[in-house]
């Protein structure tokens, strides 16, 4: 029986059809999806903090409204993704506990500080740009609810990226000090953005199996290369220098060559020792605690209603 179910699963995946919540799936597939989607959800929720830092200090009403909308979108992305994990049998409260107890990961990128308003623009351009590069292929991931969530997420991400690029264009047309601020932000965010794609393929423990299951559609290095190739002309147009002396066009490969990210730094940040890890998790834990009364009130309300309905 199990063999038959496995054959059907393999057939659906190979035929580029979608596995749905009601379908049989190997336990490892379910676990891998919960791991990846939960990390993705946590990243969206933790990712609200670095930019949220600038909402009260945005330089104009227009910039504040844009930033508010973007940060709210991220909360929405987190919710779709937590909902997708629930279709796999995960429990959202359990995932939240794992995040605030440091037992589940979120993207390394959100452990760096946002030091100036130019960081808001650079996060939009580079961080959301990297997110799009990584997530557009996930619209074709083999698990239906994840693939469908990604379609909407990607539409919103592309607005996020454009708002960032437009902000930077505006600053680059401004004063010399503003241009310096943009360059400084690019210098700080470039390498961490390359690290978002995960470790090099030969150090990526999950890629091979995730590619076979068509959860991942490209390897970490393939997507990182795509991102570099995409960003170089954008940096040129913006008038900033990407902080990599080894970055150059390789006509033979038809791609840019580029330097090696500091993988020791990456693993330190992933293991919890980045510039803002402790602060990000503490903030998330406090928000969760502060929200306890809302959850209690909602649960009490639901129980009362259920009691009323059953009495009626
Ligand atoms: N940071 O075998 P690998 C966003 C972990 S949200 C931390 O290659 P995989 C946005 C990895 O989990 C951005 N940890 O893993 C939000 C694994 O550890 P475990 C998030 C990382 O899963 C708000 C180990 O290292 N995007 O863009 O095959 C505002 C070995 O790695 C990282 C997603 O989550 C990292 N950067 O590939 C703006 C997209 N990289 O779990 C923007 C969905 C790796 O075995 N996720 N690790 O203990 C994916 O596409 C894949 O999970 C990854 C990693 C490419 C990220």
Automatic annotation (TrEMBL):
Organism for this UniProt entry: Herbihabitans rhizosphaerae
Biological process terms in GO annotation: phenylacetate catabolic process
Gene Ontology, cellular component aspect: cytosol
InterPro entries on file: Aromatic_CoA_ox/epox, Ferritin-like, Ferritin-like_SF, PaaA, PaaA_PaaC
Pfam families for the chain: PaaA_PaaC
Signal peptide: none
GO molecular function: phenylacetyl-CoA 1,2-epoxidase activity
Domain of life: Bacteria
Protein name, per record: Ring-1,2-phenylacetyl-CoA epoxidase subunit PaaA
